[in-house]
Amino acid sequence: MVDILKRRFGLLGRNISYSFSKGYFTEKFNDEVFLGNSYENFDISEINHFSGLIKNNPDLNGLNVTIPYKEQVIPFLDTLSKKAALIGAVNTIKFTKKGKLKGYNTDYYGFKKSLKPLLESHHKKALILGTGGASKGVAFALDELNIPYTFVSREAKENIIDYDLINATTFDNFQIIINCTPVGTSPNIEACPNLPYEFFTDKHIAYDLIYNPAETQFLKNAKEKGAIIKNGYDMLIFQAEKAWKIWNK
């Protein structure tokens, strides 16, 4: 049975021509089961343009949210799911039947589902590189997996260490290293987080939320030392399908 409902979805972000979401959902909607659905990019230069976007597109049914608006969009929403409120970041927006905007986070779900098969008993603690919206979903997932973590940033703050403090002892204590920064994304594929990569071993997991390129310099460097590596592609698939379920429930 063909779904003849015309429904519009899209991605909110900045400089998102590379968008995974648009390609993924456009391909999904090419299936005759989903004919009538469409997906487009809403590339805005600053979050203050969000209200005008909503006003000018009253027929929208749902949005994904990407860098840099996962946190900035929250004040513009009417309500948040319990988990999105706890995480403090939103990557999925549902337009309710009453015309309200409700924020959800499916990043944590996608990350958790993609990391879990890699975990072994010696993977005890995690380093999260970056402190943006994506890192908050990762931290929430690690909490659910009972894996302690520490954030790394360019500036040390309370409960955050800076890159200069990372050494051999750090790698002994943290067996999962997760890149939540955009460093290494195409076209700047030779860049990588500032780490002493020589301390990676076959007891480590190197996880990069980046999916383009499929193997970032961060992952290449870790792989050379025997680490298990994982990019963000599966995470994106899982979070996208979770968003689709939210839009349709």
UniProtKB/TrEMBL annotation:
GO terms (BP aspect): aromatic amino acid family biosynthetic process; chorismate biosynthetic process; shikimate metabolic process
Pathway(s) annotated for this protein in UniProt: Metabolic intermediate biosynthesis; chorismate biosynthesis; chorismate from D-erythrose 4-phosphate and phosphoenolpyruvate: step 4/7
Please indicate if the UniProt record lists Amino-acid biosynthesis as a keyword: yes
Q: Which UniProt keywords apply?
A: Amino-acid biosynthesis, Aromatic amino acid biosynthesis, Oxidoreductase
Q: Which GO terms describe its cellular component?
A: cytosol
A GO MF label? NADP binding
What's the protein name?
A: Shikimate dehydrogenase
Query: Which species does the entry assign this protein to?
Result: Flavobacterium pectinovorum
